[in-house]
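Dock hexanoyl-coenzyme A; give full complex structure.
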Amino acid sequence: MNQQEAFENRLTSLRDTEENAVQKQHQKGKLTARERLNILFDEGTFFEIGAFVEPHQSAAAKKAASGDGVIAGRGLIQGRSVFAFAQDFTVLGGSLGFAHGSKIAQVQEMAFKLGAPIIGLIDSGGARIQEGIKSLSAYATIFRNNVRSSGIIPQISVILGPAAGGAVYSPALTDFVFMTDKTSFMFVTGPDVIKEVLNEDIDMESLGGGNVHASKSGVAHFVYDDEEHAILAVRKLLAYLPSNNFEPLPLSTHIQFHEARQEYLDKIIPDDANRPYDVKEVIQILLDKDTFFEVHEKFAQNIMVGFGRLNGKTIGVVANQPKVLAGTLDINASLKGARFVRFCDAYNIPLLILEDVPGFLPGVDQEHSGIIKHGAKLLYAFCEATVPKITVILRKSYGGAYIVMSSKNTGGDFNFAWASAEIAVMGPAGAIKIVNRAELAKSKNPAELEKELIDKYKNEIANPFRAEELGLIDEVIKPSDTRNILITAFEILSNKQYSPLSRKHGNIPL
Ligand code: HXC
């Protein structure tokens, strides 16, 4: 066999191996790293960096192809510069060796220097076992880069296969985690280790599948049925965000809204204060048409958060959902809300808060699990946020929950209320039982007296007009006027300035 024939043979064998690997990936319902990047970026814009980087010397090196199992580079998304890396599971299970990790670190550092978002497409068995501490050190560099970039450039992780061991911590440090249902998994220790240590049986899906992380742990902000939808959703999310914390927010000139549905808001609050309604409807009617992009849709559904556009401008929405747990704030809702508020604040995204909250969720489990410190996170996040903050109280606004949801004295710029608002230390039924206990005990007809006292409490104390007189509500507004008022109010606040305090950092109750 001459040299030319030997070369051709080797090339054919490489192609066969590659084709087999691609087939294996497709059989699992997964795309290859390159196919994923093709969906992510505007056509033909991906510029690869480090394609020929060789793996570090190790037993694994013989198996790892050049590029060391990760494709890294820069491309355009809706014409804007974005960095990305995509792990290739067909090369040693996408495990992270030193060269692989160094390539990721390089694009992270370029994204940081150039003020562009970075997206990681993760499909990895974690630290490459054969490379030992070299692999761990590469992870450490990646984590440090994640932390350094936090609040400066948006960082997004898309889990499209396993993310095991060290592979989970970079996503956990990024702003948003996307997963796919059934084909992606995240866990620190897998089913085998759990069986060995705890003798518990669990499969990968039940332990760390997309739906588990989207609904139970809250690790995933988004879950989609397939990779294509997950990656396209990343493109959609980026359209709301600036490229870095100094860049102005992207504007949309295509403005449409539900003009005819504004009046429906005058009727949306049920007469019976204990009956629920869907706050998502309120959000959708107030925002520009079809622009609400919900974050953490399946997690802590008693609070709703997401991005939207109001008159073409990006805003963040935080809304209590009366349909779930009556809109009470529990631990998960506090964590969800706090994280979202801090993201918006970091990237100068104004906040709209729609409030209907009877209070914090009572219960031994909540108390013992730390509702005090977790609820304090939401309070801290709103107090700390310096972006324009506008609250509209739709109905209930009681006690600590009134204070938390960006009330005036926590730094809320405008607090508006609908006439249906009930603002007080606590709800009428609870309040009169404390204040009028003796009277009720003596009464011959306590049920009738209770009704009278509740009406009196509502008329004299728990209403928005009293709060308006005290200057704690800027205006009681008609629901159907809300959109127009919000547009003007955000416009007034658009030049809001803030001076950072001279301290290293605060101490959020983590
Ligand atoms: C080296 C690895 C690897 C790893 C997988 N492979 N994980 N090689 N280091 N961490 C290799 C396999 O040997 C195999 O090679 C190929 O990738 C495909 O793996 P399979 O097991 O055949 O695939 P699958 O059945 O789909 O299972 C995928 C998997 C499983 C769930 C990810 O491979 C797995 O459990 N891997 C180990 C995960 C783990 O415990 N990682 C933690 C590492 S410690 P061949 O040659 O056979 O194709 C860690 C600590 C860092 O990350 C801490 C920092 C905070």
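Observed: The CA atoms of residues 428 and 458 lie 7 Å apart.
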